[in-house]
Amino acid sequence: QTEAALAAIVASATLDALEAQRLETLGKKGWVSLALKTLGGMSPEERTAAAPAIQSARAAIAEALDAKKAALEAAELEAALARETIDLTLPAQAASKGSVHPVSQVMDELAEIFADLGFAVATGPEIEDDWHNFTALNMDETHPARAMHDTFYFPDKTVEGKDVLLRTHTSPVQIRSMLDQGAPIRIIAPGRVYRSDSDATHTPMFHQVEGLVIDKDIHLGHLKWTLETFFKAFFEREDITLRLRPSYFPFTEPSVEVDVGYSNEGGRRVVGGHGDAPGHAWMEIGGSGMVNARVLAFAGLDPAEWQGFAFGLGIDRIAMLKYGMNDLRAFFDGDPRWLAHYGFSP
Ligand code: FA5
Does the C-beta of 139 come closer than 6 Å to ligand 1? Predict the structure, then answer.
């Protein structure tokens, strides 16, 4: 029986066939294992007589199984290597890599510049409630400015009795920051905002960066210095000129719109110089002002003790200015040729 088993092992052509042989001999119910078990029930004399034959059969079979297994595995490896030969002369497939999007690039840059000025980055939810997006910013239910925001509402959805919407600006982060951390505050809040609006200079999703400074004795001069210092660093030019134009926002008083001087060079807008100088003009890039006392009160701060300024800039607009792009919608087409044209390829 041992001879037959050894022959069958040697004849096994595959690892599966070999495993079947192992089960038949040394497996739990294999005949060798069963024979070994019978030794326990024998008298000492019988055992001395029978044991050596069974032990040597077991050893011979185990050895044969090991040797055949090694041989079969080696053969399998050889076959696999032969099958998987790589033809190094074939041309490689071109792999295209992604790159950082201009908007992300600008967000990183502005966070870095404001970090140097001592500003931390704050965030808030893109799905906002009516109270943070409007009411606490001094726009109650009947305020006409609400209509100007072209808001995307979630129909039939309320949270704690408040309507739910996609935030129309980053200003609700002002409220959240004041409520969360109290004063003093020095933060920027870059992020996505949504309005149902679309043409060459408006897209339904765009990006803003909010700025908020709350402290004692803060005035408009601090706002102008902060924005000027930021734009000089961002556009890497010393001749940046800002114009603060009187305006109206319910959440700031006084309110100013921020324009930056630029010139047209070969159809491309180049930031720099005084907007009233020959060949120059002003471009609006955002809103700002001193935080309205009513907003401070909504956010739990005493207006007699604290005041501050806030601004909200269109990130897509400043990215267009920096890279000389002219159609805002192209930002969101994801066309790698457009990105490569403006130098955004790896
Ligand atoms: C606001 O959103 C105010 N929250 C800004 C603010 C913050 C004022 C803090 C005072 C204090 P406005 O709607 O003007 O304001 O938008 C600000 C900027 O976002 C605009 O100047 C423009 O650069 C950009 N912007 C507005 N709508 C769009 C749009 N549809 N697509 C791209 N950019 C836009």
Answer: no
Q: Determine the atom of ligand 1 nearest the C-alpha atom of 286.
A: 21
What is the 1 CA–ligand 1 centroid distance (Å)? 91
Q: How far is CA 77 from CA 71, 83, 178, in A?
A: 10, 10, 67
Q: What is the pTM of this model?
A: 0.74
Question: Could you tell me if the CB of 202 is within 6 A of ligand 1?
Answer: yes
- Residues for the chain: how many in total? 346
Q: Measured on CA atoms in the order 246, 250, 253, 259, is the torsion positive or negative?
A: negative
* Contacts made by residues 155-163, CB under 8 angstroms, sequence distance 24+: 159/129, 160/129, 162/129, 162/130, 162/131, 163/129, 163/130
Query: Are 227 and 289 in contact, with CB atoms under 8 Å apart?
Result: no
CA distances in angstroms from 151 to 127, 168, 247, listed in the order given: 12, 6, 21
Question: What ipTM was estimated for this complex?
Answer: 0.97
Round to whole Å and give the CA distance between 198 and 323: 21
pLDDT in tens, 250-305: 999 999 999 999 998 887 888 999 999 999 999 898 999 999 999 999 999 999 99
171 pocket-lining for ligand 1 (C-beta < 6 Å): yes
